[in-house]
Amino acid sequence: MAKSKPMSRFLGGASIEPRPVRGEMTAADLVDTAFMAYNGRRLREACRLFAEKMLAPDTVVGMSLTGALTPAGLGMSCLIPLIEHGFVDWIVSTGANLYHDTHFGLGLKMFQGSAEADDVALRKAGVVRIYDIFFDYHVLLSTDAFFRELARNEEFQQPMGTAEFHYRAGRYVAERERVLKLRGKSLLAAAHEYALPIYTSSPGDSSIGMNLALLEMEGYGLRLDPLTDVNETAAIVYSAKAHGMNSAVFILGGGSPKNFVLQTEPQIQEVMGVAEKGHDYFLQITDARPDTGGLSGATPAEAVSWGKIDPDKLPDSVVCYVDSTIALPLITAYAMARRKPRKPRRLYDQRARMLKELTDAYEKVRRKRARAKVS
Amino acid sequence: MAKSKPMSRFLGGASIEPRPVRGEMTAADLVDTAFMAYNGRRLREACRLFAEKMLAPDTVVGMSLTGALTPAGLGMSCLIPLIEHGFVDWIVSTGANLYHDTHFGLGLKMFQGSAEADDVALRKAGVVRIYDIFFDYHVLLSTDAFFRELARNEEFQQPMGTAEFHYRAGRYVAERERVLKLRGKSLLAAAHEYALPIYTSSPGDSSIGMNLALLEMEGYGLRLDPLTDVNETAAIVYSAKAHGMNSAVFILGGGSPKNFVLQTEPQIQEVMGVAEKGHDYFLQITDARPDTGGLSGATPAEAVSWGKIDPDKLPDSVVCYVDSTIALPLITAYAMARRKPRKPRRLYDQRARMLKELTDAYEKVRRKRARAKVS
Amino acid sequence: MAKSKPMSRFLGGASIEPRPVRGEMTAADLVDTAFMAYNGRRLREACRLFAEKMLAPDTVVGMSLTGALTPAGLGMSCLIPLIEHGFVDWIVSTGANLYHDTHFGLGLKMFQGSAEADDVALRKAGVVRIYDIFFDYHVLLSTDAFFRELARNEEFQQPMGTAEFHYRAGRYVAERERVLKLRGKSLLAAAHEYALPIYTSSPGDSSIGMNLALLEMEGYGLRLDPLTDVNETAAIVYSAKAHGMNSAVFILGGGSPKNFVLQTEPQIQEVMGVAEKGHDYFLQITDARPDTGGLSGATPAEAVSWGKIDPDKLPDSVVCYVDSTIALPLITAYAMARRKPRKPRRLYDQRARMLKELTDAYEKVRRKRARAKVS
Amino acid sequence: MAKSKPMSRFLGGASIEPRPVRGEMTAADLVDTAFMAYNGRRLREACRLFAEKMLAPDTVVGMSLTGALTPAGLGMSCLIPLIEHGFVDWIVSTGANLYHDTHFGLGLKMFQGSAEADDVALRKAGVVRIYDIFFDYHVLLSTDAFFRELARNEEFQQPMGTAEFHYRAGRYVAERERVLKLRGKSLLAAAHEYALPIYTSSPGDSSIGMNLALLEMEGYGLRLDPLTDVNETAAIVYSAKAHGMNSAVFILGGGSPKNFVLQTEPQIQEVMGVAEKGHDYFLQITDARPDTGGLSGATPAEAVSWGKIDPDKLPDSVVCYVDSTIALPLITAYAMARRKPRKPRRLYDQRARMLKELTDAYEKVRRKRARAKVS
Lengths: 375, 375, 375, 375
Known about the structure:
The structure is a homotetramer of 375-residue chains.
Chain A (H helix, E strand, L loop, with lengths): L26 H8 L3 H17 L4 E7 L8 H11 L5 E4 L1 H11 L5 E2 L6 H7 L1 E4 L2 E4 H15 L7 E2 L1 H18 L7 H7 L4 E2 L7 H12 L4 E2 L1 H17 L3 E7 L2 H8 L1 H8 L9 E6 L13 H6 L11 E5 L2 H15 L12 H24 L1
Parallel strand pairs in A: 1-2, 1-9, 2-7, 6-8, 9-10, 10-11
Antiparallel strand pairs in A: 3-5, 4-5
Helix pairs in contact in A: 1-14, 2-14, 3-14, 6-9, 7-8, 10-12, 10-15
C-alpha cells in the first residue's frame, strides 16, 4: 500500500482521529474532541467562532432570540450569565421570551410537563402548555396584571421605542426580584442592571403587547414606536463600525428578530446611502433549511447579496442545524471555559450618541446628494 | 382466510383503494384520488377543511403570510385570486411579502435564478438573491424611493395602524398598476380594491419599515402603532363570533404573523376578560415541527390550552408539513374547483364598528368588575 | 426610474409572472403555472426532468422505493400505472413496501385511521398502525401464511437473488388477483406481468424476510443471495450504457435502496475497474437534508465525487424536499399528461444477457491487468 | 397575588429553575443542569434512560447504526469505548459504517473537508467526499483490495450470516492494527476482540458487499445469508427475555437497521407464534419526523401496535430529534460519568445456544398447534 504521490491540496484539513470520550470531560473539551463532522462539527465551529472571534474585545455582539427560550430555563442558565460576562451587547427578542421571562422575576413558576398531555384536560384544569412545559393560567393573569400596573405609571405615558420600554419595565422586575430575594432569574431585570438594550421586532405580538393594547383602549398614553427601533439598532451597528470595531450577530432561531438584527446593514447602505460593508460575524442556530422559503432558513451567503454580510467575511459564518435548547448551553459553557469576561458595554446609555453619529452620517450623504443635484 | 369476527371500530375509515392517476386529471381530482396518507393526506384534509368548512358563508377567514410568498409569484397566482373570490377576509403578513409584492405593481421584475449561485459574484453584479430568485439591486432602490415618496404625502403625517398604512399605500400601488396597464399583479393593490385589511405584526421589520424609519429621522410625522393593530384584529374576531359567525385561521408558515392571528382570542378572553371560546378552524402549512421550540411549530392542540382554539373544534384543525410553494397552489385550485366565490366582506371599512363592539364588551366587563369590588 | 444599463447575465431566467390559478386546471398545468420557486420549483423541475429527459426512449429508469408507499395506496394509484406506461424499468424496494403491497393483491384491506390514536388500545383491539393507516392484525397473519405457503413450493428450494424471488412470488399474487377478480392492485403482480425486476437491498429486513427465515429454521432450502443482486443491478446499468443508452435513477426517500441503485456505478468503475462515467439523470424526493449525516440526504453533487453520477450530467439532477405522498401523484400525473407510453423493456427476461456483458467486460479488464503484470 | 387553591396535578413535574452554566462543568453535569425542555430535555432523558435503565446489569442492549458515524470519527470516540465498557451487546449496522471503519484499522486517513467543495474538482483530484469529510480515492481502492484478499481465504468459502462474516473479517483488521501499532481505531476489530456480534440488514449494499459480489462473479464460494441473521437476532432477544432479562434498543438514525433490531419481536410473536411482549427500552436519535412516511420516523408508540414494544414499557421510550454527531458524544460522556463498566456479554460466542433456545420454543408451538389440529 505504498503511496508516494503527493497528497491532494484538498486533504489539508485535520485528520479525523479523536480521542476516546471519557466521563470526566468538560463540555468544552467534549466539543473539541468529539464533534468532528456534520452538525456536530458545525456546532464546534459555532463554539469556536463565538469564543475566538466574536468575543474579541473590539467586537459588538447582537443577539436575536426566538423560540421558547426563557420558558425552557435558558434565560437563567445561559442568557443572564452571558450578559454578566459581557458576552452579548444588544438583543432583539420576541415579546413572548420577555413576557415568560417575567414570570421567573415575579417568583412565579413553570414546570416540566409532557408534550403528550391532553390539552382539553389541561384547559379544564387551568393549566397552560408550551410544548413540554406546564404552568398555571394564574401565572398569565398575574403577569398580565403586573405589566398593566407598571405601564399605567406616569413615566410610560408617552411614545417610546421598545428598548426604552423594556429598560423601564426591567427596573420594576428587578425591584420585585429584590423584594422576593431572587437573583439572576429574569433577563429583563439583568438587562436593566447591565444597561443592555433589548428590542422586539413585533411590539404588539405577545402578551406584553396585548396588555399595552388594552391600556391604549382604556385611554392611556403609551405608544410603542417600531421606527425608532429601526434607527437605534442601525445606529448601534454603524457606531461600532465607524469606530473601527466589528459587528457580530448571534441568531437563535430565526423569524423577524433574525431579520431585524440583519436589516441594520441594508438600512445603513441601501436606505440611507451610507457606505458600509456588512456584519463581520454571523452565527445561527436553527432548524430551518434554506430550501423552504422562510427567512429563518436564509443563509449568510444569500445575505451577502443584500449587503447584510460583508462578502470578505463569509468564512466567518456558521449555521448549525440543531435545537437552541441543546446548542445554547454547549456554546455558553464553551465560551466560559475559553474566554475571560468582557467589560459590559452598557449600550443602552449610549443610544443618543450612537443615533447622532448615524444621523450625522446620513446628513452628510444628503448634503452631498443635494450638491450633486445642483451642479 | 375466512374471518367472521366483527371488524374493529378502529377500521371504520375509508378503505385505501385509489383509482389510477391519469394525465388529464384536474389538480382537485388528483388530491381527492391519490392523497391518502401522511402529509399527502394532511394536504387533502387541508383542502377539504378550507373548501368545505372555512369557506362556508358564515365564516370569517384570517390568513397569515410568512416566507417568501410574493417573490415566488404566489401573490398573483394564488393570493390575489383568493381575495377576488372572497376566500380570505383579513391578512397578517410579514413586511417583506408586502414590500416585494410592490415590485410587481410597479412593473419591476423578479427572475428565476439559482440557489447555487456565487453570492459574492451576485453582489458585484448588483443582483440580489432570495434563494432561487434573482433581481436587480435597482428594484430595491426604486421600491424604496416609491415608499418614501408616498409616505411624505400629507395623509401619512399622523400615527396609524398598519392596516390603514397598507390601505393608503395600496391606493398608490393600484394607481401605478393602472398607469402601467397592469392588473392583478400586486396584493397590496388588490387588498385596497377589496377593502381587505392587511396587518403586519412587525412594522419596523422589512424594507417598508426601514424607509419609514428614515422619514422619522428626517422629521416626518408618520408613526406606526402596533397596539392599534392588536385591538383591531381582536375586534375582527370578536365581532364575527358575537354575530354568530365562525372564525377561521389559515396560516402559511408561522413566525410572529401566526401568533398575531392566534393571539386575538387570548386578547379577548385572558386580557380583556370577555367570554369567548377560541377560533373554530385552524389550518397551517409549515415545515416547523412541534419539538423544536418555535411558535411556528406549536400545534393547534397546544393552542387549546391557551384558549386560542375552541377545544370542541379541535377536530377541525389541520397542520400539513410541506412547503407553501407546493401547498398553496393546490389548495387554491381545490377551493376554486369546489366552491363558488363568496361576496367580499370589505372588513377594512368596518373597523370602527367592530372596534366599538369590542370596546363595549370590555366596558361591560369593567363595570361588572367594579360592581363586584364595591359589593 | 429610467434604467438604460444592460441587464446582468444573472437575470436571464424566466420572469416570475404566473397566471392566476383556476379550479379546472389539470395537475400538470398547475405545476407548470404556479410552481415557481423553492421546493415548488424543484418539484416542477423534477416533473420536467422525468417527463422530458428520463422518459426519452433511450433511457433506462431505475427506481428506489422507501417509506410507506404501498400502504399509502401509491402502488395502485401511481407505481402500477407507471409500470404499465413503461415509465420505470427496474426497482429496488424495501421489503416492507412489497409485503404490504401483497395485502391488496390478496384482497385484504387497509384503512384510513388516525396518527393520534392510542396505540395501547389499538394493540388490544388487534389493530396495527402505520402512522395514519390502520389494518387488522389478521392481515399480517394471512399475508405471512401466504408467503410461507408459496415458498414451501419446489421452485423455491434453491438459492436465488431477490429479483427472481419477487418474480416467482409475483406469479402467485397475480393468480390470487385473478381468482379474486382484482386488477391493478398489487405491484408485485404487475411487475411479474411486465417482467420488471424488483430487488430489495435488505432481504432479511421485512415480514417477507422474517417468514422466509422461519422456513430456513424449519429446514427448507430457499436462500436469498444479496451478492447476486449486486451483480445483476450493476449489469442492468452497464448494459444500458454499453449500448449507448442513458441511465436514470428516480429515488423516492433514501436509505439502503437509494444506495443500492447508486452503487451500481462504483461497482462497475471502482470495484471491477471497468471504464464508466456514472448515471445520467438523478431525481430524488426526500425529507432528508444533506447536513444530518444520512445517505438519504447525500446530494447528487457529492455522488459525483464517488463516480456515481457523471459530472457532466450534474445539471440533470433534481432533489426535491417534500413527501413522496405529495410528489409522486403530481409527477405521475405530469408524466402521463406530457409523455406517451413507452414499450416495456421486460428487463427481468434479459438478466442473463446483461450479466454476461458485464462479466465479459470484467474479464477483459482482468486479462489486461494480467498482461500488465507479466510485462 | 395570594393563591390558596391547590395546585393542579399537572404541575407536579420539576420546576424549571436551572443553575447558571459555568465553563468548568462536565458534559454530564451540563446535561443535567441546563437541558430542560424541547429536544434538550429529550436528550437529557435519553442520557438518563440509557445510563439509569438500559445499562442495568440485567438488560441486553442492541444498537443500530446508520448515517456516516464512523467517517465522522464516532467509532473511535464513542462506539469502541462503549463496547469496551460493556455498554452495548449487539449491533446492526449499515455496511458503509463498517467499510469506512476499516480505513482507520488499516492506517488509512480521513480528513476534515468542506461541504461546499466543488465535487467536479474533487473528482478530478481523486478525492472522495462524504459531506464535510474528504479522503483519497486510493483509500477506497486499498480497502476494497483488503476485503477481496481476506475473503479469498479458505475460511470464507461457505455460506454464513453477516455476524460471522464480520467476526472473521474483524480478526484480519485487528491483526493489521497490531502490525501498525494502532489501537482502538476500528469498530470491527474491537467487536472481534469483545466477541460482540455485528449484523448488517443489507449485506449487498455497501462497498463490502460490492467486493464480495465480485468474488462471487469470479467463482468464489462465500454466500451471505440474511435469513440466518433474522433468526440469530431474534434469538438474542428471545434468550434475554426467556432468562428474565430486559431488552433495550438504541437506534442511531433509522433505516433498515432500525427495523432489523425492532423486527426481532414480531419475528418471535407474529411469525413464530411464541408468546412475548416486546422490547423494554427504546431510545432513538434521529432527524426523521413521524409524519413523513419513513420507518426512520416511526414512533415507539406506533411500534406498540405491532408488538415491537411492550405497551407497559412505553414510558421508557425516548426519541430525540438531533444529529447523532451531537447526541452520541453527549450520551457516551453521560453514561461513562454515571455508570461503572459492565462485564462484556460476548454474545457472538453464544449464538448456537441462543438459537437453540428459540428453535426449541418454536418447536413447542408447532407441536401444540399440531395437537390442536388433531383433536
